[in-house]
Amino acid sequence: MSQVRDGWSTTSTGGSDQGTVRRANLSLLLRSLREHGGRSRARLAADLGLNKATVSSLVNELLERGLVRDGNAERGAVGRPGTIVEVEGAGAYGLGAEINVHHVSTRAVDLAGTVVSERRRSVDTRGLEPDEVVDRLVELFEGTMADLAALGATPVSAVVGVAGLVDHDRGTVSVAANLGWQGVGLASLLRAKLHDPAYLLEVDNEANLAAVAEATPGDPDRRDILVLHGEVGIGGGIIADGRPYPGSRGYAGEFGHMLVDRDGSRCGCGRTGCWETVIGLSHLIDLVAVDTADVLHSADLDLEGKVEEITRRASAGDERTLTALHEVGRWVGTGAALLTNVLNPGTIVLSGYLGEIGEWIQADVEGELAAGVLAPEAGGTTIARSALGFSAAVHGAAAVAIDHVYDDPTLVPRTVQTLEATS
What Pfam family is a match for this entry (predicted)? Predict the structure, then answer.
């Protein structure tokens, strides 16, 4: 026999169904506190459409798990004021990490999204075997874990972003052309080197994670977006109605390998004319550099340094640099128009190095978008620049890691017994 209790459907006989309902309600309440701020129990009940006894019980459990705290008395309340319930930042921690062509990095955040640790190391990952790259990342993991230990904490989950096609369910990097990887069981390799950690450990595509970093919870302007994340290669992420869209097998967003120039250059994936061959950072460097001795080709200059040098030359009015930027901008706009005709996003966000050079290419991108989109006014799609630079993916990885707690607050064990509150 089916019944509905506090807006969630369940059955009258299944204990597991009741547990599912409670977890869903715990998630609903905790997310509401994150997105809309602290409120009294009575106000939460009214906002969420749950009865007061249910909300009181849910808050009590979240208090026991250390995920919320009681704050000040509610202001302006009629009658006896209720106590404000707030997210407890120190209640849980998530760990994000990234493996890219020229670096590995980690970032840890608390439940409120506050950064508690950031580490980064420049590594030419293309010159190393996957096992060696993972060793470098594990060194950062260990440092980040030490930072968390100083807070008396361990992560609930860790998410690792990789520049390549990822089989999320298996934790396998199917293809990472710019890393030279194929069929690498990254999740199992990491678990072994981390001595089978108790926390959740997942692997995802870096551009998908960069997209998550741009999708601010509760922001209506960031509910339907495409993110173009550029470094040596180009990846993309899709946010649809506020949620990441991974595709049927998790491979959505490989925008960099759209065919745009059949007579163009050979791509790292082995094909000819992929979009990333005309908008990737390597191509821009080739266009800007005067010769092979140019500092832009120096192995001693990291990606950020190379982008800074390009923008310095652009600011100085260097004609060769400006011409190169205009060419890349037009190609970005050409691909953006193709994507807009298919998906009609509200916003296309230029991320990674594309965001860093956005000042110099945005007008060209918008011009090609307007010319190439069939719908009037480019279908309402606008171009925005990320403020996260090269760290967008690791930002998103940490956000996904901590979001697991919002999806299922019971991942955090009960630590404190409290009295039921009724206000």
Answer: MarR_2
